[in-house]
Description:
alpha/beta, five-stranded parallel beta sheet, 11 helices
Amino acid sequence: MTIRVIIVDDQAMVRAGFAALLSAQGDIDVVGEAPDGRQGVQVSRSTHPDVVLMDVRMPEMDGLTAAREILDPPPGVVHRPKVLMLTTFDIDDYVYEALRAGASGFLLKDAPPADLIAAVRIVASGEALLAPSVTRRLIADFVQQRSAPRKDPALRLKGLTPRETEVLELIARGLSNQEIAGHLVLAEQTVKTHIGRVLAKLDLRDRAQAVIFAYEAGLVRPGDSA
């Protein structure tokens, strides 16, 4: 199946470079581009991409606002693509908020070409882009700046079974599915089932949001390790 992609970035050369690289892949089709977030939302609504590559900082409408509009569309708009944030800095408050809004991860603009291609495929498949340990570092830095766990996430934790809570904690500590399976002495498929139930019960889109939720609920804290 061909992955439909649009590129939203205020730098024309960045858009052209990414488009040329991705279009050269047999399983990726660049179906549109836009120079700012506002036009990016419009292009997304008209082309129905699978993945939106979204720059964080742009004029007219920044990438965070545009990502929110795409991921939480108004009534009547049913298409919700995956959003992959593009940033110059790997630790960026906009990125943190974009992950909370439902973005599937972020990618540095100067990442190797192979990383960009792999990122599009990973996000299109429904996975969060980042390795859990990298996601944890990003989130820990910003959660550490917040004085106390949010009460609402803590209350929502009560809807999980003890095993599901344990799996969520291990996700937030940076363990992969395979590592969680080994830690809990479970089959990897069983771990995937537990993760699916956690995401469904907490109304989370993917692993990145699950890590954020675990930190904000106080299930884990910055500096914790498995």
